[in-house]
């Protein structure tokens, strides 16, 4: 199992959950009550699934596609740790991932 730590924007919520290889980060976040809308359901058209990967085995994840990079350009508060949770599939060689929810989320699909 892979340990995923979710930290809310203001740091008031800090939870640890378990996930399996092949799980999509957006699905795990939503299943655990994190406020990620995922409006476009993974079509890379909204950026409401924007997260910051702040620790853990981030280097084991495949690099973002050009489309993901383009969408992140429009995400509020984007930085070098930014990813779209709908594009993150956990891999078997990962042990942990620390995920911070950004302060503001912008829906670019509207
Ligand atoms: Fe819309 Fe990820 S759910 S970009």
What are the SSEs and their pairings?
Elements: E1 2-7, E2 14-19, H1 25-31, E3 50-56, H2 66-72, E4 82-84, E5 96-100
Parallel strand pairs: 1-5
Antiparallel strand pairs: 1-2, 3-4, 3-5
Determine the fraction of residues in helical runs and give it as a percent range: 10-25%
Shape: globular
* CATH class membership: Alpha Beta
Give the total of beta strands: 5
Low-confidence segments, ≥5 residues, pLDDT <50? Answer: none
Whole-number count of domains:
1
How would you name the CATH homologous superfamily?
Beta-grasp domain
List its salient traits:
110 residues; binds FE2/S2 (inorganic) cluster; alpha+beta; Ubiquitin-like (UB roll)
Describe this structure in words.
The protein has 2 helices and 5 strands. It is α+β, with helices and mostly antiparallel strands and 110 residues long. The chain has a single domain, classed as Beta-grasp domain (Ubiquitin-like (UB roll)). The relative contact order is 0.31. The structure holds FE2/S2 (inorganic) cluster. FE2/S2 (inorganic) cluster (FES) binds next to loops.
Quick summary:
The chain is α+β, with helices and mostly antiparallel strands and 110 residues long.
């Amino acid at each position: 199992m892979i340990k995923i730590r979710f930290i809310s924007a203001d740091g008031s919520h800090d939870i640890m959950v378990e996930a399996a290889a092949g799980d999509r980060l957006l699905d795990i976040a939503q299943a655990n009550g994190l406020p990620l809308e995922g409006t476009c359901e993974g079509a890379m058209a909204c950026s409401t699934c924007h997260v910051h990967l702040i620790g853990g085995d981030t280097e084991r994840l495949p690099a973002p596609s050009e489309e993901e990079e383009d969408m992140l350009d429009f995400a509020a508060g984007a930085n070098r740790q930014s990813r779209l949770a709908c594009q993150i599939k956990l891999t078997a060689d990962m042990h942990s991932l620390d995920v911070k929810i950004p302060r503001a989320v912008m829906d670019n699909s509207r």
